[in-house]
Each structure stands twice: as C-alpha cells, then as structure tokens.
From TrEMBL, chain A:
Record Gene3D superfamilies: 1.20.120.1450
Natural source organism: Halobacillus seohaensis
A Pfam family the protein falls into: HEPPP_synt_1
Protein name as catalogued: Heptaprenyl diphosphate synthase component 1
Automatic annotation (TrEMBL), chain B:
Entry keywords, A to Z: Magnesium, Metal-binding, Transferase
Name this protein carries in UniProt: Heptaprenyl diphosphate synthase component II
Entry similarity comment: Belongs to the FPP/GGPP synthase family.
Encoding gene per record: hepT
Gene3D superfamilies: Farnesyl Diphosphate Synthase
Lineage: Bacteria, Bacillati, Bacillota, Bacilli, Bacillales
Cofactor: Mg(2+)
InterPro entries: GerC3_HepT, Isoprenoid_synthase_dom_sf, Polyprenyl_synt, Polyprenyl_synt_CS
Length: 264, 322
C-alpha cells in the first residue's frame, strides 16, 4: 500500500466510525463510502496548504454530506400493505440521512468553520434542486439528462475544490463520476437490483428507449466516455501522479476487466 | 386568551420573520418552491421564533441578528416535519395534504434536505461560531431522539428515564435552543443565557407531557387525529408508563400490540383504563413540576416585558388541558 492509499484507508475507517450507530446498524445497511470520491477529495486536499487537521475534517465532512444525500436517495416510496420491517427500514433510512447531515454540521461547528458550513450547505441546496429537475421535470434530451446527472454526481466535490481553490481536476472528476454512476446503474439494472436512474429512463412517459436498447446505448456511450477520460487523465500535471495511477487502475478494474470477462 | 395575544407586542418583528422565511425557501425549481411554500402557508404557531425574539430582548436586540436565528430555527423545524411525515406516513398536516402525500416520499426527502440546507446557509450570515455549535449539537440530539423513538416503540419494558430523555430530545431541546440562540445572538450574559435555556427546556418538557396526555383526553376534533393514535403507533408516553405499573394493563397492552388490526373497541378499552387509573393526573403533576422549574429559571432574569411574556406562555401551556 502506498502512503496515500494508507491515508485513504484511515479516512475510510474514520468516516465509518463516525456514522456508526448501534441501532441503525441493526436494521439498515452500513452506508456506502464512495472510494472514488474519497480519492478525488484526498487528492484535492493534498494540493492545498491547509493544516492536516483541517484537510482531514474537510474530507470527512464532505463525505458525510455525500453519504447523507445518498442515504436519502434510498428512501423507498410508500405502498399499501407493507411489512412492518419495510416501513421501519424506510423510517430509519430517513433518520440516518438526517443524522449524517447533523454530523457534518457538528464537526464543522466544532472547528468554527462557518464558510465551509456555508459551502457544503450551498452544495446540498443545489444538488436537491438538481435532483428535482432530474426526477420531476421532462428532460428534453438524453444529453440534457446526462448533463444533470453529471452535475448531481460531481457538484459537491467541485464546490469544495472551488472553496479550497484547487479546481484543476474539476472537469475530469465530473466526467469520471458520471461514467462511474452510469456503470453502476447499468450493472444494477442488469442484475435486477434497485437502479433509480435506469428506472427513470425506462419508465418515464415518453421514455427515450426500451431497457435493452438503453443498456446498449449506455455501453456505447461509456466506451467513448472512458476513452476521452483516459486522454484527459494522461494530461494531468505530474504532481497528480498518484491520482493518475488510481484512475488507470480503477478504469481497468471497473470497466475493461468487466468487459473482457463479459465478452470472454 | 389566545397564545398569540400573549406575545402580540412582537407582531411586527414576527411579520418580518415570516417574510424572511418565505423568501429563504424560494427555489428556482417550481415543484420545490410550491412544496416549501405550501408548508409555510399552512402556518403553525411559529413558537420557536417567538422564543428567539423574547430571549433576545434580554440583551442587545438587533432584528437582523434575531431574524437570522429565528428563520433558521423555524426552517429546521419545518424540514424535520417534512421528513417526519414520511416516517409517520402522514397524509395531512395542519389541514393540508403533506408533501409526501401530494407528491411522494422522494420529493419530501429532497424538500426537507433543501430546507435544511437553506436554514444553515441562512444562519451562516451570522458570524457567531457558538450559535452554530449550539444548533449543530441540537440537530444531532433531535435525530438521536427520533431514532430512540423508533427503537422504543412497542417496548413495554422501558422506564421513566427513557421517556424523559426521549421527549427532551424530541421536543424540549429545540425550544431550549431557540431561547439560548436568541440570547447568544443578542449577547446576553452567560448566566442569563443559561437561565433562558433552562426555561425553554422545562417549558418544552411540560408541553410534551401535556401533549402526550391530550392523546388520551382530547377529542378527535381537537386533536385532528383519532384519540389514542400515539399509543396505537406504539409510543409509550407518560400516562402509558404509569399505567404499566399495573400488570393487568401491561398484559392488555401487550395483547393490543400483538393484534394486526386492533379494533376501535380494543383501543377504547385501553384508553378508558388509562384515563381512569390516575395516570393522567400523575402525568399532569410531572408536567406541573416542570412548569414550576420554568418559573424558577425566570427568577434569575431581570424584570421586563419579555419576562412577563415568557411567564404568560408558561401559564398558557399549563392551562392547556383540552
């Protein structure tokens, strides 16, 4: 493990400890800590002159916000005649998201860091506005849809990067996180798991295309997108070497390796 | 006397806050804007802003600073209601359909998160780290309180300490924090700030106990929901806790909770037992003890109109029996 990888592992454990609540842990799944977002944030913070304490707190609180937002995306719609357990899971998912948001605010308030509180709150506001656009407005084209999805996935990190004045990787982060989201959604959909974005594309009135066609189109899109991304990543300045290696390895494992296996 | 009459001298400042609350949640997104506005249109007593303003009157009262705090507290309360409606699967609130029933759970989640974010953004205009620390601690406590409430549902083996801690986190802490933040924003001295905090805490405890009593004693029309609703949802409130001292009641309740679809008759039998076994009177006596402590906290504050008003509010809460 490189020192950066060890540091990321340390941060991951710290975040996991922070969000751990014994009762929640009994009834709902542990929140997913997005390693790619953690890696991007760590890389951004590494290039700042902030104190190590502040760097760590910024990464942890940004991840707490991400986890809170992701948790609320998991809240299911109410249906008639639900099992008591289904209802309790939903109730606790609502509260868990609120709890993680409260934790981000608590950590930053202890640092007396009002500007960062404002930065993250501003991002939460914008992301929720974007989600409303994505889920409840007729998006006229697939491109427009992808544009909104990309913003939702990357806005939090981009706002933090802007706040610490390290925006070099903002565009690349947006492209990477969109590709990753599409890949995850496509895989979930194909495996019959919950995939809100794919569901939305398939089920909405006047949907863009059928499920099978959509999966094919997303695969095509991903091929092109990843290839462009590789070019962008290769052009990153030399001090982003760790991140370049991380992306190369992740792209290989998450994309090419899966394809090689799938295509035999 | 109506509650609003007690603090009528704040009318102008409360109107300023009302406008600011509305302005703060004006989103560019039409659904979000409509959902948030509907919530605020439905009103509510705005009791948290009232406590902020009254506490502020003990210091260097500046409406801009008061507004920042009052708006944020009201928005946090509102955001929590939107999410509570998802938790409780509530169809109506204050006579209007809830966000989750008019749209769906997902819209309710995004609306609540949006309002929460606006609340923090709004408070960040106040450059007072302590205000943020107090509010952040309160928010974590509020969430923990709600999680505890779900954990303790249908649990007939809990004690008074569980109940008191739960209602502290559920209700009293936000009222106490409203008083404390009003004091912080107007630079009230520490001793008086804590007296105001204690006042809010005791009043909040008393208020919630009475609310829990009313679940049994008030009519469906007064409550806006059927009597015994809290009990049916498995909430073990103070009158229930006292009733559980009787093993027969415990058995009866255990049986009620086991039934998949309890009838109105099942419920009304339990309600009648709780209403007639002295639990209501004992609960109200605890509420009164908290009110007495609230009055004592006020004794540490200088004499002014705000103090008289805080006394008036405590008195009003104490009389709220139906």
């Amino acid at each position: 493990m490189t020192p950066t990888e060890m540091h990321i592992e340390h941060l991951k454990n710290k975040i996991a400890a922070q969000v751990r609540h014994p009762f929640l842990a009994k009834f709902i799944a542990d929140p997913v800590i997005d390693e790619d977002k953690l890696a991007i944030l760590t890389s951004i913070m590494d290039h700042t002159t902030l104190s190590s304490v502040k760097k760590e707190k910024y990464i942890v609180t940004t991840m707490l916000v991400q986890i809170a937002l992701d948790t609320h995306d998991l809240v299911t719609l109410s249906e008639d005649e639900e099992e008591q357990e289904t209802v309790r899971t939903r109730q606790l998912t609502v509260l868990a998201g609120d709890y993680y948001s409260g934790l981000y605010y608590y950590v930053l308030s202890q640092l007396n860091d009002i500007p960062m509180i404002r930065t993250l709150a501003g991002a939460i506001k914008e992301i929720n506005e974007l989600k409303m656009e994505l889920y409840y407005k007729d998006v006229s084209s697939f491109q427009e849809f992808l544009g909104s999805l990309k913003k939702i996935e990357s806005l939090l990190i981009q706002r933090v990067a802007t706040y610490v004045q390290r925006t070099t990787i903002n565009d690349m982060a947006g492209d990477w996180l969109l590709a990753k989201k599409l890949l995850e959604e496509k895989n979930s959909y194909q495996e019959g798991r919950f995939s809100p974005v794919m569901d939305l594309l398939v089920k909405r009135p006047g949907s863009f295309e059928s499920g099978g066609q959509l999966v094919f189109n997303i695969e095509q899109l991903l091929q092109k997108h990843i290839s462009n991304l590789e070019t962008t990543v290769s052009k990153l300045p030399i001090h982003f070497n760790w991140l370049k290696n991380y992306f190369d390895s992740t792209i290989y494992h998450k994309f090419y390796k899966t394809h090689i296996v799938e295509e035999g | 006397m109506k509650l609003a009459m007690i603090y009528s001298f704040l009318k102008q400042d409360l109107a300023t806050i009302e406008d600011a609350v509305n302005e703060t949640i004006q989103s560019n997104n039409p659904v979000l804007r409509e959902a948030s506005s509907q919530l605020l249109r439905a009103g509510g007593k705005r009791i948290r802003p009232v406590f902020v303003l009254l506490a502020g009157k003990f210091g260097d009262y500046d409406i801009e600073r008061m507004k920042a705090v009052a708006v944020s507290l009201e928005l946090i309360h509102t955001a929590s209601l939107v999410h509570d409606d998802v938790i409780d699967e509530a169809e109506m609130r204050r006579g209007e359909p809830t966000i989750k029933s008019k749209w769906d759970n997902r819209i309710a989640m995004y609306t609540g998160d949006y309002i929460f974010a606006r609340s923090l953004e709004n408070l960040s205009t106040l450059n007072n780290p302590r205000a943020h620390q107090v509010l952040a601690e309160t928010m974590v406590e509020l969430c923990l309180g709600e999680i505890e409430q779900i954990r303790d549902k249908y649990n007939l083996d809990q004690n008074l300490r569980h109940y008191l801690r739960r209602i502290k986190r559920k209700t009293a802490i936000l009222i106490a924090t409203s008083c404390r933040m009003g004091a912080i924003a107007s630079n009230v001295n520490k001793q008086e700030e804590m007296a105001l905090f204690r006042y809010g805490y005791y009043v909040g405890m008393s208020y919630q106990i009475i609310d829990d009593v009313l679940d049994f004693t008030a009519s469906e029309q007064e409550l806006g929901k059927p009597a015994g609703s809290d009990l049916l949802q498995g909430n073990i409130t103070l009158p229930v806790l006292y009733s559980l001292e009787d093993q027969d009641v415990k058995t009866e309740l255990h049986e009620l909770f086991q039934k998949e679809d309890p009838t109105a008759e099942d419920l009304s039998r339990v309600i009648n037992t709780i209403k007639t076994n002295g639990s209501i009177e004992r609960s109200l006596a605890v509420s009164d003890r908290y009110l007495k402590k609230a009055y004592q906290a006020l004794e540490q504050l200088p004499q002014n109109k705000a103090k008289q008003t805080l006394k008036g509010i405590a008195k009003y809460i104490g009389k709220r029996r139906t």
